[in-house]
Amino acid sequence: MKGSHLIAAVMAAEGFDASPAAGASRHDVITSVVLRSPARQVAFCAAVQRACPIGAHVRPEPAATPGYASQVIFANGTFIEGSTAELSADGPLRPPYVVYCQGGTHWTHWAIALEAAVAALREGDAGDAPDWRA
Hints:
By secondary structure, the protein is of the alpha+beta class. It is built from three helices and five strands, in the order H-E-E-H-E-E-E-H. The protein has helices spanning about 1-15, 40-50, 105-125, and strands at about 15-20, 30-35, 70-75, 90, 100. A five-stranded antiparallel β-sheet has the order 1-2-5-4-3, with helices on one face. A hairpin with a 5-residue loop joins strand 4 (about 90) and strand 5 (about 100). Helix 1 runs parallel beside helix 3 and helix 2 crosses helix 3. The longest helix is centred in the C-terminal third of the chain and has 17 residues, at about 105-125. The chain is globular.
């Protein structure tokens, strides 16, 4: 739960809408972040993947996924695949380009992943990153 609050606080401070908001009452471990562009969504997920202990060398790419009308990008790479304890970020590539973050066995893993994600967004890995806070 601490990781979920951290995601919401950091991303809100960076100018993105997160739900539930930091400090809000929660009933599950998923936090959604509206990134407003496909490039930002891919950059965010790629940074999360780089922060994972398994498959850090893999760059996630959006692809067709059964059950989804849009391409979906998935970032995960921890030791509890498919579990809600697994740190992951994913979402369909369609407006408003929301990434759904969950899991992590300790909030510090999200701190590391968020540091990488924010850096990727600020450094231009997201293509349109220089104007993202304007």
